[in-house]
């Protein structure tokens, strides 16, 4: 979410608790620009916020010219000072999956395991250390999972160049009403999993420059996830705004997640 | 080319004709007439067309079978290829005939004087006399076919004959009148048609024809077609395409013709303006902005205090904490509440919050009616009670009828705990719900303890439709409206808080002495309330208190003893056998009203509430914001003397893991299992015989008794036991 588009986006996606007070919004407008300057990002997006018991994490993403490259993620507790998060690893994700409960709100908090199964212990325990996970790592893993699950973009918004990098499509003017209602006009913005499983006939219909991602159509479970997306889209229709920046709004869905696994 | 006069055939009225003396006489005229025509034809052909096709084409109708006449090729069209007088030789006679038909039967189809036949006859060069002859004959066809066609212009034929005449004209234009040995002959005689007896008077027949045709020409409202045109088109298509067995595929042909008729309404020059669904919702919203009648305004002024809260002010404070909807939407909700207040007799009103649903969301208003305005609900309950009583009576009758009844079960369902009175406990407030601001508000029914107890066990997303069923286990007694109401009650009881000291107990005598009172229920605003600073409010949770009574496990706020029996019930119980001694229920108590939040239990290591200041940079104007962790989505704020509660969420309680619905109970055993009841197969005859033989053997060898035999006996004994079982 570009900071300039925040107010409109928040208006549209406001489902009650956006977690962004006016003060924070104002701060974001300033600090994100400075982030862009300092880290030499081509663009900075506000990803969302994760609410913990004692505090809230505000997450931002910085992107280079290639949109599909791994992104740098930063977090802040007050929308003014930002810290870089380590990139997500498979280990982190696995470990974080075992945790339950809300975030604490303190990035240095360490979770300890007392109730883990013996098998898991054997897997993770090395050198006899007790299993602890820092909240930071849990944060990273959570963000990665959410991105993978719910990061969506409208079709034809991004294009893949023959060299493999992904760019924004300047000619994309939004989805028409009928297109917007269909799930097939949205893609997951992650490594495609289902593309190679498609039959040749289906592949023949695809355009390799725009259809290089998994569509939302074949998601299981369909109901919850995509209904929520449709809910959001319904609101777009209500306001009759072209969905040009839908991919940004896609990340707004994350506001409401209370990261309880 | 000699111009031959077309033999004029005069068609007179029946009356005149009858003078000819019956069919024979008419026949005579008919045959002579036909013969004359034929002569003229043959003469022409012989003269002008030595190359004419051989005889088979020129057949007289005599001797032809009825159906053969319909063959188009059998019609003796003489001319092909030779043009005369610059007119197309081979005109589409059928079209002409159709044209005649379509333009109205009013144009007399007779060959003399009127119609296309006459037109041709006046052409210079005569030209297509042969052509015209057939047409003339075609035109003259109705003469014999239309029995009793009046006079000079055969204007109207009777219904049946017209229909047949239609077909007849198309295909057998050339054929002369039916001869007596041909079927259908009689129909075409004047006075002997199908409906002649029904329409004796030619005037009536005319009228009947007119009516029939008008009826056929009526265009249908749904498709804009009329039967007349449709039949014409179908027949045209059939004759053009000449399918085999047209009668069998007639319906399909008709369908095809209809399908081909489709025309899009759109004008190709202009785009039709799209009507988006958002237009409707915009209209609903716009209606909010219209002022109500003048009468309401006067009422409001008289009242003084408007029950409508200042929603925008509350929204402002919540906005400081980052909670709430956009300002536009809040304003729309504000207006919607105003509409609610103007319609219902409301004393206090509050925007309770918004619950998200899968298809639509709910906007909820919490309302208290003015005293004396709640009679509608009690009527409904009475109706339900009477309905139940009737059901009981019917069941009693049924039972009496059955004589061979299975033994009645001794199961007594647990006593139904009655819901709390409207205005007390969980039903203290009435809730109104709508999907979008602008839509009419719907009142939610009061909540019953059973619904609350069940709602605690299930977790269902709301769809947004109040009448949606809730399919769950344990089965929820009600639909989505009831579930919504139950969740609202639970959320209110769990998360409605206020700053300490804002409310105080109203002082009444004798409250403390009541048994089972469960604490004081009444509270009122404290006029001596001294607000704490936001900082103090945030420091500890003991500065906040619940002002809504918590709901007991039973599902009510005030405990109800189901074992308390009225006199009637005690009498019934004495008659019945008491199999089970009812356990003594302990009175359930919950935390008393106005308990501070510090005593709220958290979930594992998560506290029940999270407090924060809206801003740390400007502490003078900071607002204390409270978030509930048990009910994610419930918020409260306090700023000086103002406070508020709101809910934005899905309507579910926080659970650590995923929700696992309750499993159904194991299958109940029907009877106690034991060796006496356990079934075993009866020994078959062979086994019994073998057993007998073995026993005899045993008796013989038993005396020699050694351990081995004893063992065998032992085994046999075991076998015996098994068989006995």
From TrEMBL, chain A:
Family under the similarity heading: Belongs to the flagellar radial spoke RSP9 family.
What is this protein identified as? Radial spoke head protein 9 homolog
Keywords of the record, alphabetical order, are: Cell projection, Cilium, Cilium biogenesis/degradation, Cytoplasm, Cytoskeleton, Flagellum
Please tell me one Gene Ontology term that the record gives under cellular component: kinocilium
Cellular compartments annotated = Cell projection, Kinocilium; Cytoplasm, Cytoskeleton, Flagellum axoneme
Q: GO biological process: any one?
A: axoneme assembly
Entry superkingdom: Eukaryota
Tell me the organism.
Gallus gallus (Chicken)
